[in-house]
C-alpha cells in the first residue's frame, strides 16, 4: 500500500502561475492571435490550464461558500464597519433577491466553463506536448468543466449546458441558449466525469510542482457527491417543483421519485472509497505532539485528535480527499480572547463568529445519542447552573459555574465548541494543568463583549476552526490550515446514507460505515448506543430512523466545514432549521443566572423559494429563452 500525501495547489505555485496566465484569463474567442500565443508551446498551454483551475481556488474561501455562510451553523453580527465581505452571512436575514442575488455564481462559473472549452478546443496546438500529457490535461479540464457546471446545478437547478463555445460569427439569437432539464444537467456532468476519470493519475508523484492537480480518487469522490445530490429530495421528484416548465412547455424537474438514483450514488461512493483506500487514505487518528507537554491526559489527546482532523497540515493528513489551496484566514474571528492583552485587538481580531445554541445541541451526549433521547442525561434541566468538578476538569474549568448542557457531552463537542467555562488548550500554553478557559460573561469577562465589533452574540465559538498552536495575545500569530472540500469520514457517511436510501431496510454495511466514524470519535456503534441509552432504542433498525441518525451524524462530524448548507438544502431541511429563532446566551450579563438565559439574536428569513438561487432579473430580460426559478 503506497503512502502518499494529500494536497492541493500550493500558494507559491498557484501565485506564480496565476501571474503568468492572468493575461489569458479573459481571452475572447475571436482574438486568434492571443489564442495562438496561449497555446504556442507546452509551457504556455500549461499556464492556461492553471487559469482553468483558478476559479476553483476562490471557492475554498469560506465566506464565498454558501454551504458555510447560509447554514446558520455560524452567525455574524450586523456591524457598521465590516472587516470582510459578510454578504453570505446576511442571507439568513432575508437579503436574497432576484435583482441583486446573494453570492451569485452564474456569470463566474460560465466564464470558467468558457475557459475550459477554449482549453479543450486548443489542446492539439502545442507541438511539444506529449500524448500522455495531452490525455491528462484533457481529463483535468473535463473534470473542471463538470465541476463548474455542478456548482451551478446545486445552486440553480436546471442550467444551460455549455458543451462547446459559440463560434465567433454566431448570430446573436443563437447565443440565447435554453436551460436543460435537471436530469439532462446531472447526466451531462456525470458523463464528463466518466470521460475524465480513466485518464487522471492515481496519485501525484511530483509533489514539488504538482500540488493540487486533480487525481483519480478525488474525481471519483466528487462524482459520488454529484450522484448523491441528484438522488436527494430537493432534486429527486420534489413536488414543490412539479409542473415547472420552460417556455417550450418542457418539464425542467423530474416529475417522480427515482430510487435507482440512490443505487447509482451508493455504487459510486463505494468505488470512490475503494480507490481512496487503494491509495492509502484512512481516517486520521494521530495524537498531535507539537506544542504539547508531558502531562496531557487521554481525554485531551482525544479532543486534540478530533480538532486536528481539520487543522492538520494537508500533506500530513491521510483523511483529506480533496481540498484547495486557499488557507483559512479567519482565526481572529473564531478564537475567543483568552488573555487580557488580547482585549486590545478587538477591531483587528474581533472574535465574533458565533455558534447558535441549536448547533451546539446537535452534538451527542457522551453515550453517543442525541441529548433529547438519552435517558441518563437531564435534558429538561440542561440550562440549570452546575459547577465544574474533578470528573470534568479536562473539559470544564474546575470550580467555574456554567450550565449542565456543557457536561457529559461527546468528545466532538469539546473539540468543536468553545463556551463559557470551557477548557481551551493551546494558545501558547503547553501544559494541560495551566490550560486557559473561556471567560465570556459580560464586559468583565476576558472573552466577553467589549464593543459592538467584538461581541460574540451567542456566547459560543467554533473552536474546531482554530489551530491549537495559534497564539492570540497582544497580537494574533496563527498556525495556518486549509478546510477540506471532501474528507474520508464524509465519504463514509455519504455511502451509508446512499445505502440506507437504496434499500428497503438498513443493511449491515450501513452500520459498518457509520460506526467507523463513531469509533474514531470514541463512541459505541449505533445499535449498541441506542439500545443502551436511547428513549427510542429501535430507531436505528428502521430506514426512517436510521436516516435521521445518519443526517445528524453528518452534521456533527462535518460541522463548520461548509457542508451543512448543501446537505440541509438537498435534504429539504434548511427551511425547518431556519424556521426557528437563532438563540444564544444573554451575553451582556455578568451574573451567572442572568447570563444563562436563552436569548434570541436573529429571526431568520428563509422561504420555499430560497432553496434555489434566483437568476438575476437582468439575465432573464437579456435572454428571453431563460425561465426564472420557481417562486421568484
Task: State the main characteristics.
single chain, 632 residues, mainly alpha, Serine Threonine Protein Phosphatase 5, Tetratricopeptide repeat, two-stranded antiparallel sheet, 12 strands, 38% helix, disordered N terminus, membrane, SusD-like_N, RagB/SusD family nutrient uptake outer membrane protein
Can you walk through the features of this model?
By secondary structure, this protein is mainly α. Strand 8 and strand 9 (476-477) form a beta hairpin. Mean pLDDT is 93; it is low at 1-32. The strands form six sheets. Strands 1-10 form a two-stranded antiparallel ribbon. Strands 2-3 form a two-stranded antiparallel sheet. Strands 4-7 form a two-stranded antiparallel ribbon. 38% of the residues lie in helices and 6% in strands. The protein is built from 23 helices and twelve strands. It has helices at residues 11-21, 32-38, 42-58, 66-69, 87-90, 106-121, 131-156, 182-196, 207-210, 216-231, 260-278, 298-311, 331-334, 357-360, 411-416, 488-502, 508-520, 526-533, 543-557, 564-570, 574-577, 592-595, 617-622, and strands spanning 320-323, 385-387, 401-403, 417-419, 423-424, 436-437, 460-462, 471-472, 476-477, 484-487, 582-584, 599-602. The longest helix has 26 residues, at 131-156. Among the domains are: 11-62 and 103-269 and 614-622, Serine Threonine Protein Phosphatase 5, Tetratricopeptide repeat (Alpha Horseshoe), CATH 1.25.40.890; 298-317 and 328-381 and 408-481, no CATH class. Helix 3 packs parallel to helix 7 (131-156), helix 8 runs antiparallel to helix 10 (216-231) and helix 10 (216-231) runs antiparallel to helix 11 (260-278). It starts with 10 loop residues before the first helix and ends in a 10-residue tail after the last helix. InterPro entries: SusD-like_N, SusD_RagB_dom, TPR-like_helical_dom_sf. Keywords: Cell outer membrane, Membrane, Signal. It comes from Sphingobacterium olei. Residues 1-20 form the signal peptide. It is found in: Cell outer membrane.
